[in-house]
Design a protein that fits this description.
Blueprint lengths: L1 E5 L11 H15 L3 E7 L12 E11 L2 E11 L5 E6 L1 H4 L16 H18 L6 E5 H13 L11 E6 L7 E2 L4 H4 L12 E2 L2 E3 H8 L2 E4 L2 H6 L10 H6 L4 E3 L27 H13 L10 E8 L5 H14 L3 E8 L1 H13 L4 E5 L3 H10 L2 E4 L9 H7 L3 E5 L2 H6 L13 E3 L4 H17 L1 H13 L4 H20 L1
Helix pairs in contact: 1-17, 3-4, 4-6, 9-12, 10-15
Bound molecules: adenosine-5'-diphosphate (ADP) and alpha-D-glucopyranose.
Length: about 500
């Protein structure tokens, strides 16, 4: 099968969250199964051209947007798994450091134009290089319009007309909803500005249109697929997802263990595995030193690596943290950025609790790996979580997750059974200060009172296998179904 993967993020080139990890890893797994995959990304100002060996590929690519012909260029590189990656270079839209927003987290006002253009340019590129895909696989609202462009503009195109559309929703709260004045520029045609297609209370909704036009739609865990078919977690999309019937499913994300496993991790002071855990102690010591925590192997560390957004539940943690630190002998290691109030709160904690709380406000790949390895517990009290990767990484690093039982967190973490000493983490159901306090307390008391259980849980956690192999096979089945649907 020939698959074109269209995304606004992909490691190691451009990343704000888990989407980048998924688009970096899934193509490698598909390629191992014998499929040919290309990835198409925007060339953001922040992409390191020299480091990644990105070379010019096509000097001019003409892209019609409404009545405007935009001329861009295309560059090319290979990802570590040998996958070809194309970059759409258009300085007017992408020559900025941020992917979606400026350094103050204000969304760029021209995002509706930037990503409609990117989606259209990606298909135009495939045409201009005569690459005939079986599948166009788009990710999130930023690439969702490719599903529509395929049908609206390429229905009769000898190269693209046969391609089936698959849309993966990584987070349904981000739909790309903008003023209807952008419709002309997108070229998506007034006849598609209807309530079951792109129209959403008088505005233009990119994700909704993508859901309508895609042959198959999926999200990134079975539980989130269920949760989004009704109620508030669907963010208004339930009727449109239900219209798809069984053409909307959930496929759990996998993990790229070449990057995220203590046996391979290049960021750690020493590697470790279930057979020899000395490296975990070394990582803990380095983490304590790096973040100014009291160096003591006996103190449990609770790690947090997160975008600071409402989804992640860290506002609730902030409300109860003083209480936790008053009552429990525990350390915190926090890495994150986003919401300014949360940045100020978590940034000030080390001064308020010297030696007990360490934090770094910003983005650091290296520190994110060290926190995974050096912590004893990983806190992810999300309001909702389509999949969540950090808790799955944590399992492999023997860092037991403390999570709310929602979405992928529910699907990947097994509740601790205090009698049997089994499980891989600590789960609670309702996001509240009490639940966070009690569940953190449960984990911390287990650390001190039942160390044998902690050891057993660590072994079970490390033995879990969430590699991409199985999930990639599920995507192949989804693609096959999409191709069949396209043919009828
Ligand atoms: P989401 O995609 O909703 O942010 P995931 O758990 O799926 O949540 O993925 C988050 C990814 O982003 C992980 O790889 C995590 O390590 C990374 N990440 C999040 N915040 C930071 C940060 N401040 N610095 C470095 N990496 C981060
Ligand atoms: C989104 C979700 C996260 C998921 C990631 C990758 O950012 O918030 O839960 O793991 O996409 O699919």
């Amino acid at each position: 099968m020939k698959i074109a993967m269209i995304s606004s993020e992909c490691v190691p080139f451009a990343k704000t969250g888990g989407l980048a990890d998924v688009v970096g890893a899934l193509p490698k797994a598909l390629s191992k199964l014998g499929h040919e995959v290309v990835i198409i990304l925007p060339l953001y100002g922040s992409v390191d051209i020299a480091k990644h060996g990105i070379k010019p590929f096509m000097a001019q690519l003409g892209v019609w947007m409404g009545n405007t012909l935009e001329w861009c260029a295309v560059h090319k590189a290979h990802s570590d798994g040998g996958i070809t990656v194309y970059f759409i270079e258009y300085n007017k839209y992408f020559q900025r450091d941020g992917l979606y927003h400026d350094a103050w987290f204000n969304d760029y006002p021209d995002n509706p134009k930037r990503f409609a253009f990117f989606s259209r340019a990606a298909l135009q590129l495939l045409r201009d290089m005569y690459w005939m895909p079986d599948i166009i696989h788009a990710h999130d609202w930023q690439a969702a319009s490719t599903m529509a462009y395929l049908k609206v503009w390429h229905w009769n195109d000898p190269l693209l007309a046969k391609a089936a559309g698959v849309l993966t929703i990584h987070n349904i709260a981000y739909q790309g909803i903008y003023g209807s004045e952008h419709l002309d520029y997108t070229g998506l045609k007034l006849e598609n500005f209807k309530p079951d297609i792109f129209e959403d209370h008088g505005r233009l909704n990119y994700l909704k249109g993508g859901i309508y036009f895609a042959e198959m739609v999926n999200t990134v865990s079975p539980t989130y697929a269920k949760e989004t078919r009704s109620g508030p977690l669907s963010c208004g999309m339930a009727p449109f997802l239900n219209n798809k019937g069984d053409r909307y499913t959930g496929i759990l994300n996998g993990v790229d263990y070449a990057l995220w496993s203590p046996e391979n991790d290049k960021h750690l002071p020493a590697r470790y595995s279930a057979r020899d855990m000395k490296g975990k102690a070394a990582a803990k010591k380095l983490l304590q030193e790096t973040l100014g925590l009291t160096v003591d192997p006996k103190l449990p560390i609770i790690g947090v690596v997160s975008r600071f957004v409402a989804q992640k539940g860290l506002d609730v943690v902030a409300q109860v943290l003083d209480h936790i630190l008053k009552d429990m002998v525990v350390q915190f290691a926090v890495l994150g950025s986003g919401d300014k109030l949360l940045e100020t709160y978590y940034g000030a904690l080390p001064a308020r609790y010297p030696g007990r709380v360490g934090s770094y406000i910003g983005y650091s790949d290296e520190l994110s790996h060290l926190i995974e390895a050096g912590s004893d517990f990983f806190l992810m009290p999300s309001q909702y979580e389509p999949c969540g990767l950090n808790q799955i990484y944590s399992l492999k690093y023997a860092t037991l997750p403390i999570v709310r039982a929602t979405g992928g967190l529910e699907d990947t973490v097994e509740q601790y059974d205090e009698k049997a000493g089994t499980g891989t983490g600590f789960k609670f159901n309702v996001l509240s200060q009490t639940a966070v306090y009690d569940t953190v307390g449960w984990a911390v008391s287990t650390w001190y009172d039942r160390p044998v259980h902690i050891d057993a849980m660590r072994r079970s956690a490390m033995a879990k296998d969430f590699s991409w192999e199985e999930s990639a096979k599920a995507y192949v089945a989804l693609y096959e179904r999409a191709i069949t649907l396209k043919r009828v």
